[in-house]
Amino acid sequence: MGKNLSRNCLGVILFSVLGNCQSSYLLAQASTPLTCPQDLETLAPQLLQDLPGYSNRLNQVKRQQPGQGLIPPAFIVLASQADFRPLPLNQWQYQPQFPDTSRQVFFTTLERTYQPTQIDSSQNFYWAFFVPTNQGWQLSLLFAQYTSPRTQRPLLPPQDVTQSIIGQSIQQWLRDCQAGGIPAFRQRVNSSPGENVPKDP
What are phi and psi of 145, to 5 degrees? Predict the structure, then answer.
């Protein structure tokens, strides 16, 4: 299934359905602060790299809740690279629903569901809207189009999944990043101004 076809399919979503825009861990030390990138092009690739781990951990937590153990476990094997090419929104909105500062990110996931006698794999497509805030980038809305494990063709129209496992995992990752808890963004700084400035001989 072509990615461009799926991006176009996502473009026909009715924008009347909008998503509502805990704990974070801190790995930083006083001498080695951690920073969260301000540009989405730097932030998104690391987010998608970490997304399977975040989603699978959250999925396991959800399965411990009453009544959830009967649902076949699904796991995110990997997420694709980010596609930052936006779809034009003005032609699909009677009234503007998204701020001019929002950024669109497309990505796919390879997901597996473990049945008692078989393993089903599927490729699913996601369309994320991020908006900048004083605390950093936030997930405003997440759409998904799911495919059939048998045919790898979309079965359902795109739907709002902002509060799904994937959506909650993205929001948790962003909170951790803004709290300084993503080791990939560890950045050492001078203990005092000018410490590493070359001295005159």
Answer: -130, 120
Angle at 131 between CA 170 and CA 1, to 5 degrees: 60
**C-alpha–C-alpha distance, residues 175 and 44, integer Å:** 14
Determine the length of the chain: 201
Here the tokens at position 65 are 């809740």
Tokens, residue 143: 């759409």
Closest C-alpha to 38, from 186, 176, 177: 177
Per-residue pLDDT tens digits of the chain, which is 201 residues long: 555 545 555 544 333 333 333 333 333 333 345 689 999 999 999 999 999 999 999 988 887 776 655 566 678 999 999 999 988 765 555 555 555 668 999 999 999 888 778 888 888 999 999 999 998 999 999 999 988 766 666 667 889 999 999 999 999 999 999 999 998 887 643 333 333 333 444
DSSP state of 95: S
How, if at all, do strands 74-79 and 103-114 pair?
Answer: antiparallel
**Cβ–Cβ < 8 Å for 22, 175:** yes
Q: Tokens 């497509």, residue?
A: 125
**How would you label 178-193 residue by residue, b for 16+ Cβ within 10 Å and e otherwise?**
bbbbbeebeeeeeeee
